[in-house]
Amino acid sequence: MGSIERPYDVLIIGAGLSGICTLHHIRQELPSWSVKVIEAGDNVGGTWYWNRYPGARFDSETISYQLSWDKELLQEWDWTETFASQPETLRYIERVCDKHKLRDYIQFNTRIRSAHWQEDERTWIFRDDAGEEYRTRFFVSCLGVLSSPTLPAIPGIENFKGELFHTSRWPKSLDIPQDFAQKRIGVIGTGATGIQTITEVSKVSSIESLTVFQRTANWAAPLRNTRITPARMKKIKSEYNHLFQRCAASPTGFLHQADPRKTCDVTQEERLALWEKLYSEPGFGKWLGVFSDTYTDRTANRLYSEFMAEKIRVRVKDPRIADQLIPKDHGFGLRRVPLESGYFEAYNNPKVHLVNLRETPFQKATERGLVTSDGKEHELDILICATGFNAITGAFSDIEWHGRDNRPLISGDSNAVWAGHKTKTFLGIMTQSMPNMFMVLGPHQPFGNIPRSIEHAAEVVLQLLKFCEDNGYSYVEPTKAAVDKWTAHVFACSEGSLINEIDSWLTGVNTNVDGKQERTVARYCGSAVEYRNLCQQCRIAGWKGLNFA
Ligand code: NA7
């Protein structure tokens, strides 16, 4: 669209669940508005479009992950597994788009590179890779929390002659198991993605070897996936209202709530009984259903970690390997806990080798593979980087921002709104100097059960857009005081949580990204229930904290 044409009323970037949900609500409630979605991929789905690596699946309960507003689809759609695989989830998202005819508004294969605020016209001008311009009055970022992949900076990596890729850029032409036959595979990274990939690759009997490069051992616990029978699906459908109410009442948006008792207030038998019960059940209860002080009290966390360490020892035959797989530098649950289906048993396979990068870090890459500090060359045909993402702010960094007074959003520049990746927001929905820009799953929103957070944020954004429409406002921006107050509140909520004392994407640390070595508070750590109440109070008070014009 050329710049002389009428601007869009709303431009959305990203056609993952956030973008789809926001688009749907705007189409429903502001039907006369012109709206466009720009998406880098060639299909909808976001996370579930990009992450096609083998073994990719939910490790949170699928039934609590759906869009709760589409009551009809809830009744129509039959899930086949308690924790759905990536293809099934992508099919669900595609179905939502087709049912609501959302694809008509989405432009695929387009990556936005820059954003310029035009104060006199009160519009944003976005430019894509090809230099095409998109003018819009309002803009909703649906860029995703984990959408900007990061690769390890290993000296000489460009010399490696084998295949190398990030898990979220899995080559469409690479089939497992066929293309893995007789191959020496390497995986760097043991987060949720690495754990799923390693488990799946280790099951391919025809591989020559699988070498896991582990820097930080990660706690993980059994997923215990099951098929959903037609009878169970029928029952689930009859309980959806109750199920979403349970999610709404939970601080994390999941079906699980912590046991209100404290770890040391019960006998050892009672403690073990709860832990064993949770361990034997499917899903996140073993992370979220534990005693209420597990992630705030060091003794409680140590006791639970010891319980989990013993489980690993039992499952891994070689005690030296088991010892390396048990985290020593952080307790259970202080990073996002991956749920697995045979991860620890993978190390009982003689073809699977563990390289402990804490003892022998990477020295360099060669044509043939990776050399560690003990001088050993690990020869590889395929190197899979499960090395995570520039989380929360990464996708924002990939765009060059010129906000009000030409301010950058995020860069090394001290004038940047989020200088040094230190995010500041109002309700996690807006930030200063970026007028008319709203965020779904922006920094300072609760993440927890992601679709529950998305639905709420999309609703708040819609309320704000309608407020502008109803009052004839073409300009909205939070005040500095409101941003400072909200940011201070977000920091205050994070106090006392042991999770915030550990390096991980949850605390904004990524060793592969300049300026992200220090921990920060980039997500809302309080209860999602309280967060929603605060948003509602703000709305009832006439959106106090926002300037409209
Ligand atoms: P994560 O959880 O950020 O894990 C990334 C992994 O990659 C982690 O084990 C890292 O080790 C490792 N890593 C990253 N960079 C390097 C370098 N340079 N060298 C060696 N190892 C490295 O990402 P995931 O994709 O697994 O999961 C992200 C979320 O997606 C997950 O939490 C779920 O919510 C779904 P480190 O721990 O930094 O030492």
Care to describe what's here?
The chain has 549 residues and is α/β, with parallel strands linked by helices. It is built from 16 helices and 20 strands. Strands 1, 2, 3, 4, 5, 6, 17 and 18 form an eight-stranded mixed sheet that branches. The protein has a five-stranded parallel sheet with strand order 7-16-8-9-12, with helices on one face. α1 runs parallel beside α14 (450-471) and α14 runs parallel beside α16 (528-540). The longest helix is centred in the C-terminal third of the chain and has 22 residues, at 450-471. It is globular and about 70 Å long. The protein binds ligand NA7.
Question: Topology of this structure?
Answer:
Blueprint: E1 8-13, H1 17-29, E2 35-38, H2 47-50, H3 71-76, H4 86-99, E3 106-107, E4 112-118, E5 123-128, E6 133-141, E7 163-166, E8 184-188, H5 192-202, E9 209-214, E10 221-222, H6 230-238, H7 240-249, H8 268-280, H9 285-288, H10 298-315, H11 319-325, E11 339-340, H12 343-346, E12 352-356, E13 362-365, E14 369-372, E15 377-379, E16 382-385, H13 394-397, E17 400-402, E18 437-439, H14 450-471, E19 476-478, H15 480-493, H16 528-540, E20 546-548
Helix pairs in contact: 1-14, 14-16
The structure holds ligand NA7.
Residues 146, 152, 188-194, 215-216, 218, 336, 357, 386-388, 505, 511-512 line the site of ligand NA7.
